[in-house]
Design goal:
5 helices; elongated; mainly alpha; about 150 residues
């Protein structure tokens, strides 16, 4: 069991990798070509200010989230902060998605994303549980991540 606690800090960090990458990929897509990216989702952007607003909202915010998560991933002390951030973000996104799909009658179109977001929320919840459990253990009973 002691071996498990030695790898636990790395498992928690591993759980931060997917959301860090997801936010970075979303950002890259909307920073590079917000018009085409929005159009692929059925969104039409007005030229000029509309494109800039989409670039900031759909590109800038996810990029900031990705950078924040990357800094949390690199610091043992901030792993729990990163996991909490992901849990809050994904929880809110999932709640808004469920609200939107019921209001807009788009349940079938959203089920795949709902499942992915629920899975990510579950993994993040497990990561939080793991990290809290690890931190409650006496220092002599678990390894450190650096």
């Amino acid at each position: 069991m002691n071996k498990f606690w030695k790898v636990a800090p790395w498992l928690s960090r591993l759980m931060l990798l997917p959301p860090t990458a997801i936010f970075a990929l979303i950002a890259a897509r909307y920073l590079a070509d917000p018009v085409a990216s929005a159009a692929a989702q059925g969104i039409v952007l007005p030229p000029g200010l509309g494109v800039t607003i989409a670039r900031v909202g759909f590109g800038g915010f996810p990029l900031g989230c990705s950078i924040f998560l990357a800094t949390c991933l690199l610091s043992e002390r901030r792993v729990i902060i990163g996991l909490t951030f992901v849990a809050i973000m994904i929880g809110v996104v999932l709640g808004v998605r469920v609200f939107g799909m019921t209001m807009d009658s788009t349940v079938q179109e959203n089920l795949k994303l709902v499942n992915a977001e629920a899975g990510l929320l579950a993994v993040t919840g497990f990561g939080l549980f793991l990290e809290w459990s690890r931190r409650r253990r006496p220092r002599s009973q678990h390894g450190t991540a650096g």
